[in-house]
Design a protein that fits this description.
By secondary structure, the protein is an alpha/beta fold. It has one domain. It has 3 helices and 14 strands. The strands form 2 sheets. A 7-stranded parallel β-sheet has the order 1-3-5-7-9-11-14, with helices on one face. α2 packs antiparallel against α3. The longest helix is centred in the last third of the chain and has 21 residues.
């Protein structure tokens, strides 16, 4: 596992290699990651502030990227993130999954996109964002985009910005949990989904990422 902040601004993952990158600090980050043929990238971000800009370029066929981000901005905090994944080769896959929490006066400003260029085929691109307000006020902006110039693809994108609803809490509260504890369990489950693959790689890192986003 590589720390994103210990690597150069442009990272090239060689053919048929698999890399795991971790963004677990709040340093302002701007990096380009290029995937060769058959290369795989798993990038995890657990961040509570700062600017985070990542551009992924699938230059090689059969390359795979998976980006999982968990963000939590406390009162008055701010995260600005730009996440882009583009395809220059066929038979490639990219998934971006973002989950963020915003306390009162917190700001999460996101700009995410998957671009599928003309001439590529057999591409899979999935982009999903969910953002939850925890405080009485705050600002969340999500702009997920699919930029598609090819027909032979499977692509989707989704965005949800909301609060924890009574309907989501009903099952747990009917079993004796108070609202705060039930909310905590729901958030723990959602964050576990973001970082679940890390558990089998490095359990300590997995737990640290979860605690960071839960604010423990």
């Amino acid at each position: 596992m590589h720390s994103l902040h210990s690597l150069p601004p442009t990272i090239q993952i060689p053919a048929h290699e698999s890399w795991i990158l971790l963004d677990s600090e709040n340093n302002d980050t701007e990096q380009i990651i290029i995937l060769a043929e058959g290369a795989r990238l798993d990038l995890y971000s657990a961040r509570t502030s700062g600017k985070f800009q990542i551009q992924i370029i699938h230059q090689g066929a059969h390359s795979i990227s998976q980006i999982r981000c968990g963000f939590h901005v406390s009162d008055g905090g701010k995260i600005e993130a730009i996440l882009r994944s583009s395809f220059e080769a066929s038979h490639a896959t990219s998934e971006i999954h973002i989950f963020s929490l915003a306390d009162s006066l917190g700001e999460v400003l996101l700009d995410s996109a998957i671009e599928i260029k003309e001439g590529t085929k057999q591409i899979v691109g999935r982009l999903q964002e969910r953002h939850i307000f925890l405080g009485s006020s705050g600002k969340i902006r999500g702009i997920p985009a699919l930029i598609v110039h090819s027909d032979d693809i499977k692509a989707s994108h989704a965005l949800a910005i909301d609060r924890i609803s009574d309907e989501e809490l009903f099952y747990l509260r009917s079993r004796g949990f108070n609202r705060a504890d039930a909310t905590g369990l729901l958030l723990d489950g959602a964050i576990s989904t973001i970082f679940e693959w890390l558990e089998g790689v490095d359990e300590k890192v997995y737990i640290a990422c979860k605690k960071r986003i839960l604010g423990i």
